[in-house]
Write a structure and sequence with these properties.
Strand order of the largest sheet: 1-2
Number of helices: 10
Structural class: alpha+beta
Distance between the termini: 8 Å
Largest sheet: 2 strands, antiparallel
Number of strands: 2
Helix content: 40-55%
Order of helices and strands: EHHHHHEHHHHH
Strand content: 15-25%
C-alpha cells in the first residue's frame, strides 16, 4: 500500500517564532519609501509582505501587504495602493524577485505621475521599516510514511504549517513548500507533490490549508 511505503528520509516537522526589530528607517513620502525598499534587509521585505498572512491567517484581504496599506490609506495614494495590493506575492520564488516587483510597480507609477506634487504624511504616521528573524525549532513529530505524515499533520501547530508552506518556499528560497519537496524526493510521489505545490496557500486560513492538504493526502492513501 502507498501509505506503507517508507521514505528514504524522514520528514521532521519544525516550528518557529519571530523576533521583530525596528530597522531605524522610516518614510514620510513615496520617494523615501522607494529608497528604503531598495536597501532594507530581505527579512524586512518578507515581514511587510507576509505579516498579514501570519496575523490574519490569509492574504485575501483589502490590502495584502503593509506597503499597499500605508500608501493607500495613510499616504492617500489610492491608485498606487491598489497596484501594490495587486502584486501576486505567491508567484515569486525569491525575496529578491518580490522586492524588484514592488520597486518596479512604484517606479512605473511615479513615471506615469511625473510632475505631480509629492504627498507627505504628518509626524507619527510615517512608515516604519521592521525586520524579523525566525527562530526555528524542531518538534517531536517525525514521519517515515505517508500514513504517519497525514496523522501528524493533523496534530502540529499552525506555526509549523506556516513555516513549512510560506517561509520555506519564499524566505528560505526553496523551489516549493517542504511538504511537496519531501513527498517527491523521499516518497517518490511526484503527482501528490505537484497537487499540493499547485495550491494557492494565500486564499485559505491556516486551518483551512491544513484541511485541504490532509484531504489530498487521504485521497492518495
Amino acid at each position: 500500500m502507498r501509505t506503507r511505503l517508507k521514505a528514504t528520509e524522514p520528514f521532521v516537522f519544525h516550528t518557529r517564532f519571530n523576533l521583530q526589530e525596528l530597522t531605524g528607517l522610516k518614510a514620510a513620502n513615496i520617494d523615501q519609501l522607494l529608497r528604503h525598499i531598495k536597501k532594507v534587509p530581505s527579512s524586512s521585505i518578507y515581514h511587510h509582505t507576509h505579516r498579514f498572512a501570519e496575523k490574519h491567517h490569509r492574504l485575501s484581504l483589502v490590502s495584502s501587504n503593509d506597503f499597499a496599506y500605508w500608501v493607500g490609506e495613510i499616504l492617500g495614494d489610492g491608485m498606487l495602493g491598489e497596484k501594490l495590493a495587486g502584486i501576486d506575492t505567491v508567484r515569486f520564488r525569491t525575496i529578491h524577485d518580490l522586492r524588484e516587483a514592488i520597486v518596479g510597480t512604484i517606479e512605473r507609477h511615479l513615471d506615469e505621475e511625473r510632475g505631480s506634487r509629492r504627498m507627505f504624511v504628518y509626524h507619527g504616521a510615517e512608515f516604519y521599516f521592521v525586520k524579523s528573524t525566525s527562530v526555528i525549532l524542531s518538534t517531536r513529530y517525525t514521519a517515515c510514511t505517508l500514513e504517519e505524515f497525514t496523522r501528524l499533520l493533523k496534530k502540529v501547530s499552525t506555526n509549523s504549517i506556516y513555516f513549512h508552506v510560506f517561509e520555506a518556499r519564499l524566505r528560505l528560497e526553496k523551489r516549493t513548500n517542504d511538504f511537496s519537496y519531501w513527498l517527491e524526493s523521499s516518497l517518490g510521489d511526484t503527482e501528490l507533490a505537484d497537487r499540493i505545490s499547485r495550491l494557492d496557500p494565500y486564499i485559505y486560513s491556516l486551518e483551512g490549508l491544513r484541511k485541504k492538504i490532509i484531504g489530498l493526502l487521504e485521497k492518495r492513501a
